[in-house]
Design a protein that fits this description.
By secondary structure, the protein is α+β, with helices and mostly antiparallel strands. The chain is built from 6 helices and 9 strands. Helices cover 37% and strands 20% of the residues.
């Protein structure tokens, strides 16, 4: 009789519980509005390779975007270590990692090249970007980032922004919080499965 009860309990647990798939909400769809797509295309943005890129050209790929500057002595190294780890495990062309400098006057293309070269295992899908100084605040605002470059004091949040293939912002994750980094990894995997 006890064996039957045990079997019945196992059957209920095994077959009675459906696995709930996590759905990732859309935080903002501002990036995929026609006026935003035009702005994303119009910005003068260059990567560390010296190539001009349009931010809307990444539509169709997942994007993980963060803000930094090359001489940042505090949070940037820890943030970049997390991005490097995530990017190394997601080398697919389906995901691109974009680190945008908040100090474009200092972080010229050669400086960004040198900075990128510090990461010996830097995946080919991780790019360091610079925009024109006059476009920086608009770009940051579009990605829901908080930055301050007034009075030569450089401040930025430690967030990474996850953007889906349709340019919807799906989440903001604090790269200095290990639990949120785990959530970011998990959400990238979920969105990659949705893409397939």
């Amino acid at each position: 009789m006890n064996t039957f009860k045990l079997f019945l309990c196992l059957a209920v647990v095994t077959f009675g519980c459906k696995r709930v798939e996590k759905k990732i909400p859309i935080v903002s769809s501002n990036l995929n509005k026609p006026e935003s797509v035009k702005k994303l295309e119009a910005f003068e943005i260059y990567n560390h390779l010296g190539e001009k890129v349009a931010l809307n050209s990444y539509k169709g790929q997942l994007q993980v975007v963060n803000f930094f500057f090359s001489t940042c002595p505090s949070i940037c190294p820890a943030m970049e270590n997390e991005i490097e780890g995530i990017a190394t495990t997601n080398r697919s062309e389906d995901v691109v990692f974009l680190s945008v400098t908040i100090n474009p006057e200092q972080d010229t293309i050669p400086v960004l090249w040198d900075h990128a070269s510090q990461f010996l295992n830097k995946p080919e899908n991780w790019f360091f970007l610079r925009t024109e100084p006059e476009d920086l605040l608009t770009v940051a605002k579009m990605y829901l980032a908080t930055i301050d470059t007034s009075q030569n004091q450089f401040y930025h949040t430690s967030n990474a922004v996850l953007i889906d293939t349709d340019l919807n912002i799906r989440g903001l994750y604090d790269l200095l919080n290990s639990q949120e980094v785990d959530f970011l990894k998990e959400d990238i995997a979920i969105l990659l499965k949705e893409k397939d």
